[in-house]
Design a protein that fits this description.
Helix content: 25-40%
Structural class: alpha/beta
Largest sheet: 6 strands, mixed
Bound molecules: pyridoxal-5'-phosphate, zinc ion
CATH class of the domain at 71-97 and 197-371: Alpha Beta
Number of helices: 13
Oligomer: single chain
Distance between the termini: 62 Å
CATH architecture of the domain at 71-97 and 197-371: 3-Layer(aba) Sandwich
């Protein structure tokens, strides 16, 4: 097991490379000479897949029981989308109600293995809440630099987990200082690196392993809501490893889902560019995927898998959120974007499609209030109630 530069393919020993490859500055990722076994008996959370993850010794591993999330079908949603074989990987069933828990279980375990006791990150909500919870579980100090629009409830979550939430705009300079001068582990991208912490991204691979296990094969298409793009690159790496181990001979086409008002991957994909575009004025209700730009590894994965980058309007995102809620799953707008894009992707009826539902709607009360303004029925008379019944 070692790290390899995605740009110049130089190998490096385990360690933190906060500014990427010391030779060329590109991102590094974890590579393995030997993979497997895929699953071990008794492994907790993502560590069921410990043979595929970068922390060989159990004593460093952190878990809050993340992963093992349901893969569900929703008959009404399938019908509305015209996709009989549509599945949802419900990542809201994680300890802090988002897929980020897989990232921090892997990332903070690696941080402990490498001797770090403090972690810093940057967030619009989910990433920081998850970092704070896993820092608590790992006995690490944690500082979270928050986007000004972070929901109040998520700021409180961060504080209750024992971390320090700090609203800060822009966030990169202070983040870099804590990493370079104060010995903090960065659980996020240090710009201009095109990928978040390499060890954390390994955690996302477990999404692919679970889907393969739950379906008994890989799907034809997977649709992931993306900002930096690790939400797509991580599962893609997982599917590629399953192929390398001979467990599948195919891999899914990977599709990135974005909002029309912030779609740098879509711009690049349409132009068949190798670089991710920069959105000057990102706009969308889906704050979790409202990043100005993203990472090349995800764009490359889209090309290599025969996938695409898709986008949806604000109306389509809200409609998808309401459709999922009416079927029993309340997700946040970023996650609903996966369904909104899947509905217009032109997938064929017989194809199997998995949408990654990355985060929970209940963590975004201010956002829900914007799209859900039905009057509350309070102390009605029986006559008033009967009218509604
Ligand atoms: C709910 C949700 N979906 C999707 C994403 C996008 O993830 P990535 O930046 O890894 O592409 C995020 C990131 O914050 C998120 O919180
Ligand atoms: Zn390099």
């Amino acid at each position: 097991m070692k790290l390899r530069c995605l740009g110049c393919a130089t190998d490096f020993p385990h360690g933190l490379y906060p500014l990427g490859c010391p030779k060329c500055g590109d991102a590094v990722e974890v590579v393995y000479d030997d993979l497997g076994p895929l699953e071990v008996d008794g492994g907790v959370g993502i560590w069921r897949f410990s043979g595929m993850l970068p922390v060989p010794e159990e004593r460093w591993r952190v878990s809050l029981g993340e992963g093992n999330t349901p893969l569900v079908r929703l008959a009404e949603v399938s019908r509305a989308a015209g996709l009989p074989h549509l599945y949802f990987k419900n990542e809201t069933a994680n300890p802090t109600w988002s897929f980020k828990d897989r990232f921090h279980a892997a990332g903070l375990s690696a941080a402990r293995m490498l001797g770090y006791s403090k972690v810093v990150t940057s967030t619009t909500g989910n990433h920081g809440a998850s970092a704070a919870a896993y820092a608590a579980a790992a006995g690490m100090k944690c500082v979270v630099f928050c986007h000004p629009e972070i929901p109040a409830v998520q700021r409180r979550m961060i504080a209750l987990y024992g971390a320090l939430p700090v609203i800060l705009e822009p966030r990169q300079a202070m983040l870099k200082t804590l990493v370079e001068d104060f010995g903090y582990w960065p659980a996020t991208t240090l710009a201009p690196l095109p990928m978040a912490n390499a060890y954390g991204v390994e955690g996302y691979k477990t999404i692919a392993y679970e889907i393969w296990r739950q379906l008994g094969r890989v799907p034809d298409h997977m649709v992931c809501p993306i900002a930096a793009g690790d939400a797509l690159y991580g599962p893609w790496k997982g599917f590629c490893e399953l192929r390398r181990m001979g467990l599948t001979d195919r891999v899914p086409a990977m599709h990135g889902a974005q909002a029309e008002g912030c779609n740098p991957f879509v711009e690049s994909f349409r132009a068949r560019s190798q670089r991710v575009a920069v959105e000057q004025q990102p706009r969308s209700i889906a704050l979790s995927i409202r990043d100005e730009t993203g990472g090349r590894p995800a764009l490359q994965a889209i090309y290599d898998s025969g996938g695409s980058a898709l986008d949806a309007t604000e109306e389509e995102i809200v409609a998808a959120l309401r459709l999922l809620a009416s079927a029993g799953l309340l997700v946040e707008p970023a996650s609903a974007t996966a369904l909104a894009c899947a509905r217009k992707a032109g997938f064929r009826e017989e194809e199997t499609v998995v949408c990654l539902l990355t985060g929970c709607g209940a963590k975004w009360p201010e956002t829900l209030a914007k799209i859900w303004d039905e009057p509350v029925l309070e102390n009605p008379t029986l006559e008033e109630l009967k009218r509604l019944l």
